């Protein structure tokens, strides 16, 4: 292990990274709160400002993936599709198998200039998560409880507001509804069998209501659906903790573009289209497991300096006073100050660890297996 790789595993450095993310996030959230006064007078200016504020926060996580861990993302797609990236409103369908699948999606958003304006249909519990949920709130992210009777009006209103969004947006949907585990997969395939649908090997049965509703509400705004199938070289199982420890992963993403005009408008036919899409995604994963690659030409878009420069800005702004204060505490020799500062570090480390826990597969809650959950669309 080289010196740099060793340093990346040290708790003190990781704590400093977390400190920069958390404190900069709180500052950004406060500024976002102040921008709310713009909404009644100039909604589009409010949106443009918050798009850039959110970029300043999310790009720090992308920096961890691209520069800290050195993870590489290879796209399997054609040049004609790549030329469309960042030039249109789209819906993204991504398989939900890994703790860092959202980060791989974000790094592609960043490289094509849509990270700040990226959207997601998020579970309501995330609204309460500091930094993540708060930033999403100011970005007009649509939160749902995954109970259609309760979500119907909220989802329709939220999606309707996005029709005039001034920046090109990529709207991410995890159609499986929850992250893949063997237990959830077994239950999901029982549902598939009861509905007479083909069984999937590498995915859960997609929940069609979110997709059909999003497509219907954003008709005329989004021009295409991007199907993204993600996997990792050498059967790697990436984690956010692995990224923080500087571990490098090799991500492969098969991307297919479907113009909205080619997708059926009828809700039932649209749902059938989605089921067929997931059968094709399953075949792509089978190919990857056998061959170690996806079919098609490859493109590796270069990482951009903006994520690194943004992090260095926040690190310079926040770490200098922190280090000066820490030195002052130690030099003072005051047991009370030292104890207080130590308590601050402990609380900060716990808070950061809990934020990381949001991404962990074993901690991602789901109603899969409950009777209500089995009434999938």
TrEMBL record:
GO BP terms in the entry: phospholipid biosynthetic process
UniProt xrefs under SMART domains: PlsC
Any one GO molecular function term: 1-acylglycerol-3-phosphate O-acyltransferase activity
Residues annotated as domain Phospholipid/glycerol acyltransferase: 90-212
GO cellular component terms listed in the entry, alphabetical order: endoplasmic reticulum
Pfam hit, one: Acyltransferase
Membrane-spanning parts: 12-39, 311-331, 337-356
Keyword Chloroplast among record annotations: no
Annotated keywords: Acyltransferase, Lipid biosynthesis, Lipid metabolism, Membrane, Phospholipid biosynthesis, Phospholipid metabolism, Transferase, Transmembrane, Transmembrane helix
Family (UniProt): Belongs to the 1-acyl-sn-glycerol-3-phosphate acyltransferase family.
Protein name: Phospholipid/glycerol acyltransferase domain-containing protein
Organism of this sequence: Oncorhynchus tshawytscha
């Amino acid at each position: 292990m080289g010196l740099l790789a060793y340093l990346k595993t040290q708790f003190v450095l990781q704590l400093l990274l977390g400190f920069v993310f958390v404190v900069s996030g709180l500052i950004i959230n406060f500024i976002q709160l102040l921008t709310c006064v713009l909404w009644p007078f100039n909604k589009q200016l409010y949106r443009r400002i918050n798009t850039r504020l959110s970029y300043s926060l999310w790009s720090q996580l992308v920096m961890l993936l691209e520069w800290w861990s050195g993870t590489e993302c290879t796209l399997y797609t054609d040049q004609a599709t790549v030329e469309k990236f960042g030039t249109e409103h789209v819906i993204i369908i991504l398989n939900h198998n890994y703790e860092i699948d959202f980060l791989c999606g974000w790094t592609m958003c960043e490289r094509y200039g849509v990270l700040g304006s990226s959207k997601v249909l998020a579970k309501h519990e995330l609204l309460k998560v500091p930094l993540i949920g708060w930033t999403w709130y100011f970005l007009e992210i649509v939160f749902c409880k995954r109970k259609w009777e309760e979500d119907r009006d909220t989802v329709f209103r939220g999606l309707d507001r996005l029709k005039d969004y001034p920046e090109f947006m990529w709207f991410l949907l995890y159609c499986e509804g929850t992250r893949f585990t063997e237990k959830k997969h077994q239950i999901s395939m029982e549902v598939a069998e009861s509905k007479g649908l083909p069984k999937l090997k590498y995915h859960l049965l997609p929940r069609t209501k979110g997709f059909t509703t999003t497509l219907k509400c954003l008709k005329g705004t989004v021009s295409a659906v991007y199907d993204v199938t993600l996997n990792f070289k050498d059967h790697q199982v990436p984690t956010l903790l692995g990224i923080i420890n500087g571990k490098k992963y090799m991500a492969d993403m098969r991307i297919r573009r479907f113009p909205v005009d080619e997708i059926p408008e009828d809700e039932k036919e649209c749902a059938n289209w989605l089921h067929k899409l997931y059968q094709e995604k399953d075949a792509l994963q089978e190919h990857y497991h056998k061959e170690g690659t996806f079919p098609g030409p490859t493109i590796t878009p270069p990482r951009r300096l903006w994520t690194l420069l943004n992090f260095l800005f926040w690190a310079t702004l926040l770490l200098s006073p922190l280090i000066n204060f820490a030195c002052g505490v130690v030099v003072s020799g005051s047991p009370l100050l030292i104890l207080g500062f130590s308590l601050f570090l402990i609380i900060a480390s716990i808070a950061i660890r809990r934020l990381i826990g949001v991404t962990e597969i074993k901690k991602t809650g789901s109603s899969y297996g409950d009777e209500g959950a089995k009434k999938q669309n």
